[in-house]
Amino acid sequence: MAERSIDYPRWDIYGRHIIDTYFLVQHYDLAQRSLMSQGLKQVARHFGVSAPDRVYLDGNDIAGQFLRDPELLFRYNLDDVLETAAIFNILGYPWFLQTQMFPFSFQNCPLRGNATRINALLLREYLHRGHAIPPRTAEATPFEGGYTELLHEGVRGPVVHCDVASLYPSLMLAYRLKPASDSLGLFLPMLAELRRFRLEAKQAARESANSEDRHYFAALQQVFKVLINSFFGYLGAPLHNFSDPVTAAEVTRLGRVTIKTMMELLRSAGAEPVEVDTDGIYFTPPQGCEQEEQQLALVERISAGLPEGIDVELDGRYRTMFAYKPKNYALLGYDDAITIRGSSLRSRGMELYLREFMRAAVELLLTSDGSGIERLYDNCVTRLMARDFEIGWIARTETLNESLAGYQAKIQAGKRNHSAAFEIAGTAERLYRAGDQVSYYIIGSGKDITAYEQCRPVSSYNPARPDVNIPYYIDKLRHLKKRFDPFLPKEPTLFDFS
Asked: Between residues 6 and 425, which one has the greater pLDDT?
């Protein structure tokens, strides 16, 4: 896994450790991609730490609420604090554990990339033993990555998911693949111990009786999953003392061999792979393999066909799967829960009305033949034309990824396109900085407009004099619906004799 780091502000209070819970949420979401929003309220609901009677207030009405009922505002703020503390207890502890392993403080550990932490761990032990440290790798050497493929588009079911538990770490341990420069032989024992810890946390998450413990152990195992997978990324990354691209290339080669062997074993058993993604396979089981016990036995037979130390697990069973494109799919569980993966099916950058339409369309595909999508589209168009919505339903929210001055300099140099969010920030009374969010909507009366020239901040919207560009938003909805057209039932024709 490539090293990822988050550039967030540094504060130093000697004798204390300062960690922003918001950035722990960002770390979590980078790996999980399971949050529809990184806002406090949505994250609290995701982790199940919201109190049943917690107070919710409109953010735009905070000042007015203070004048009307300051006691209610106090309760709202207290609920915010309690939720933040509960989220920190879940997401902060895995990093606290890592401070007991790596030579970094509690507040610095989340700031460091995984490869940097691994390198520091090895350097510390080499220095402790008084052993020479090898020079850093000069430059990156490209090599082929993992095997991914979408074999069948559309809706299929039932579907089973099996994957290799920590594929790359397992391959390194099974085949004793380590950096050539690790003369003390520390790399693999460290990896083995961290892998053991992660698998124990993963098992605890599965066996936890309540949702809070389940989320806690899930977050714990996820942080350590990313860490141990980064042992492979460390091998292939440049500028580290124990990097070894040749060994990294061998790991990915064995990974591709392993996945293709699993596909052959599944097909020989009568199963049909649907989606393959580096370390796991979604497949339709053969006839006579509908029950969980039968499917578990099939996965165990697949695991037995692989080398010792490469363990295949049954990772999920689903009624139906909608495979849209590689790494973009939706799953309907036997508990009726829907899981959506991939930015093409769950982009937070979309306006709320588009996200709601996409979610409902995916649910219709998973639960029926999708014939209700046309009616869903018509209802949404009717609501737009009747202007039966709050402005937040069609507004777009973007985060400024650089300073306003940097944006303007690039525009003048012809190095980037105009942005509606930056144009609004540039004319606002308040000072916007990189990392701030801007919410805006499009005005006018035609779909073929230039967004950055026809944008207005949400704060300027007047419901008494609505100026929303309805044709523009209907056209965006139409384009989104077209994505699903290939998967909808075909309309009967005059010459259809089937």
From this structure: 425
- Alpha-carbon distance values, 217 to 46, 83, 127, 280 (Å): 14, 18, 34, 22
Cα separation, 99 vs 115, whole angstroms: 15
Q: Which tokens sit at 305?
A: 């066909």
Q: Which two tokens stand for residue 65?
A: 């609420």
Q: Sorting pLDDT into bands at 50, 70 and 90, what band is 303?
A: very high
Residue 408 has which token pair?
A: 């303007």
Cα separation, 437 vs 435, whole angstroms = 7
Residue 420, φ and ψ in degrees, nearest 5: -60, -45
Tokens of 301: 């037979």
C-alpha 276/C-alpha 148 separation (Å) is: 5
Structure tokens at 32: 């999980």
282 forms beta bridges with 161, 275
Q: Give whole-number Cα distances, 328 to 222, 254, 325, 389, 413, in Å.
A: 20, 25, 5, 30, 36
Mean pLDDT of the chain: 87
CB 114 within 8 A of CB 226: yes
Backbone angles phi, psi at 442, to 5 degrees: -105, 135
Residue with tokens 């292939």: 236
Tokens of 487: 């998967």
Assess contact for 330 and 362: CB atoms under 8 A: yes
Give the pTM. Answer: 0.78
Nearest 5 degrees, angle CA 358-CA 359-CA 362? 85
Phi and psi angles of residue 357, each rounded to the nearest 5 degrees, phi first: -65, -45
Please tell me the predicted confidence (pLDDT) of residue 3: 42
Residue recorded with tokens 């969980």: 292
Residue the block writes with tokens 């709202």: 76
Half-sphere exposure of residue 371, counting CA atoms within 13 Å on the CB side? 6
**Dist. CA 342–CA 331, nearest whole Å:** 12
- How distant is the alpha carbon of residue 16 from its chain centre? 31
Let me know: does 144 contact 253? Beta carbons within 8 Å. yes
Give the side-chain half-sphere CA count within 13 A for 167.
Answer: 26
Q: In Å, what is the CA distance from 469 to each residue of 136, 171, 477?
A: 57, 55, 13
With CA atoms as reference, report the closest residue to 251 among 240, 243, 262. 243
